[in-house]
Amino acid sequence: MQTPNAQAVRAAAGLAAMDRPHLGRRAVRLARQYPLGAFGLLVLLLFIILGVFGPALAPYNPRALNTGRPLALPSARHWFGTNTLGQDIFSRVLAGARISLEISGAAVLIGGTVGSFLGILAGYFGRWIDYLLQRSSEAFYSFPSLILYFLLIAAFGQGVLTIIAAIGVASVFSSNRVLRGATIAERGRAYVEAARAVGCPERRIFLRHVVPNVLPLAIVLMSGGLGGAVIAEATLAFLGLGVPPGTPSWGIDMSGNNLSVARLGYWQVILFPGMAISLIVLGANLLGDALRDILDPRMRH
């Protein structure tokens, strides 16, 4: 037989569970509060689906030549028209989503994770870790990123892994400074001093209190950094330094002869790849802004 205290505890737990909003209702409420963030999430989900199933959904082989008349305008047969080689632009835009998201996502995930970890360590413990990280950041920002990419090409050769490494290194040094500053601010808060006063070990304070409070900022930085990584990958492909020629890539489709003929009035050649880049960058930035407002208690309305 349960005691009155046990019954009261169970009743209070039941009321708390009833007051807790359902996951679906909470998602709808957040979408209403942050409509731009919901739009950005939908855009990213759409491009992720296209990246996974795009080559299978493409009506033509994105690498095939002369699928139609070269430089044909958009029509029922070729929704986005064709380029100078007679390739279907719609098929290449769908297939290009996979290359762009694979490179950008891997670079941001690896670089952002390493940079966040180093930034939190430097901000909390300081000393030689902070000194080494800050001097390395200053050395990195002292020369253009293209030089780093050229060095990586000389060491490992041109390819997808080299592009991921170059963009990932840039993500490491761009995210660690922000996380370092946030960790320094968090380290001086009252709850950290209170934990030290009661004898809590530094390792426990760091892992159980500081890291969970700073980690949401790392998620926001990775989300916002995805757009920059997409632009970086497209820029390298546009300059002929990215994936091999012929590979479905938004940057390649906007370069070379396609860029030249676009000035002659064949706007479809660069318009649709450019719109794909703009949409995914816009979606990543809108989602990053919404996540910042949601995860940061100081930004909540």
What features would you highlight for this structure?
MetI-like fold; 301 residues; mainly alpha; globular
Overview of the molecule:
This protein has 301 residues and is an all-alpha fold. The chain has one domain: MetI-like (MetI-like fold, Orthogonal Bundle). The chain has helices at residues 4-19, 23-33, 35-57, 89-125, 127-140, 145-156, 160-187, 190-197, 202-238, 250-253, 257-262, 268-295. The model is unreliable at 15-19 (pLDDT under 50).
Outline: globular
How do the SSEs run, as a string of H and E?
HHHHHHHHHHHH
- How much strand content do the residues show? under 5%
* Domain count: 1
What is the H level of CATH, i.e. the homologous superfamily? MetI-like
Q: Could you tell me the mean pLDDT?
A: 81
Number of helical stretches of at least 4 residues: 12
Amino- and carboxy-terminal Cα gap: 46 Å
What is the CATH topology? Answer: MetI-like fold
| Residue share in helix | over 70%
Specify the biggest β-sheet.
none
Enumerate the spans where pLDDT stays under 50 for 5 or more consecutive residues.
15-19
CATH architecture: Orthogonal Bundle
